[in-house]
Recover the amino acids of this structure.
């Protein structure tokens, strides 16, 4: 299958800071590709290059066959872009913002209403309300409608759900699946690891490099080693104790549990963990072998890269 987006050896620095380091990947039609990583990992720089807002120091990228350097006018007129920060006009109403962006691209709400219908139905009751007075979730939906109103060939979303409540995030991703199924490939960045499983493929990016790019299912299935969950009311003390045991790869807190990564499941290490906790903790605790989630996989890749 021919790729819709192709990036080859993209690098970008800001002074002495290397934001992107020799990044290459492809995006194919009708898929959601997520770039998952913490703040400062290079996601926004990459998106600004792909949307022709930045010029890379080296490397190249094409979208639908158009080069981001030479053909930027054609690319800008054919993509949808939703930046991380709310960038619409707060003093204009929902409907006025939507008509404004449609007019910029020589279109209209009526002409492409089917493109935004699934999202706009939730916004319709607030059509006359100023955009600045909307809730975070509604601002997000309005920005998505404005990015779609000209029927783009591809949609770029840079951390679209940051600062939005959990329910709105779920609704937003349901909308993205519908858009993808309608034939528009989507490239999205997010710092939320749980959103990775909603993507068709995921690129784990850290320190300006793509650590791995594959389906979420493949990445999770190929987690190396064994994973234990420790639950206790004395999590802080338990984490300190566990960090001192040799043979443990990592110790991280996940919600109400402590996740311990082991290179392999060996009874001597588990027995030692049990003995230390039994001797040092004053409250009850549990030790359970668990399956990894995507965040466990990301942390494992980060640890491996830091040791290279």
């Amino acid at each position: 299958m021919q790729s819709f987006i192709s990036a080859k050896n993209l690098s970008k620095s800001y002074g002495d800071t290397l934001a992107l380091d020799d990044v290459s990947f492809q995006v194919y039609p009708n898929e959601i590709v997520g770039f998952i990583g913490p703040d400062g990992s290079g996601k926004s720089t990459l998106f600004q290059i792909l949307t022709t807002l930045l010029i890379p120091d080296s490397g190249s990228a094409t979208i639908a066959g158009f080069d981001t350097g030479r053909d930027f006018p054609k690319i800008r007129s054919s993509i949808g872009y939703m930046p991380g920060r709310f960038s619409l006009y707060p003093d204009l109403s929902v409907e006025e913002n939507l008509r404004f962006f449609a007019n910029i691209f020589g279109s209209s709400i009526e002409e492409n209403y089917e493109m935004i219908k699934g999202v706009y139905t939730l916004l319709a009751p607030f059509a006359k309300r100023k955009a600045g007075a909307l809730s975070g979730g509604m601002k997000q939906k309005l920005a998505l409608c404005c990015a779609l109103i000209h029927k783009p060939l591809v949609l770029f979303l840079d951390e679209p759900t940051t600062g939005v409540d959990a329910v709105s995030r779920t609704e937003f991703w349901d909308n993205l699946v519908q858009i993808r199924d309608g034939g528009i490939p989507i490239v999205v960045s997010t710092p939320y690891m749980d959103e990775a499983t909603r993507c068709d493929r995921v690129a784990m990016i850290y320190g300006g490099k793509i650590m791995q790019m594959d389906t979420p299912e493949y990445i999770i299935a190929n987690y190396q080693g064994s994973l234990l969950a420790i639950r206790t009311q004395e999590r802080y003390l338990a984490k300190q104790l566990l960090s001192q045991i040799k043979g443990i790869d990592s110790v991280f807190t996940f919600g109400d549990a402590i996740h311990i990564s082991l290179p392999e499941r060996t009874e001597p290490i588990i027995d030692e963990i049990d003995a230390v906790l039994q001797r040092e903790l004053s409250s009850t605790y549990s030790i359970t072998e668990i399956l990894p989630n995507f965040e466990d996989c990301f942390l494992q890749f980060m640890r491996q890269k830091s040791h290279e």
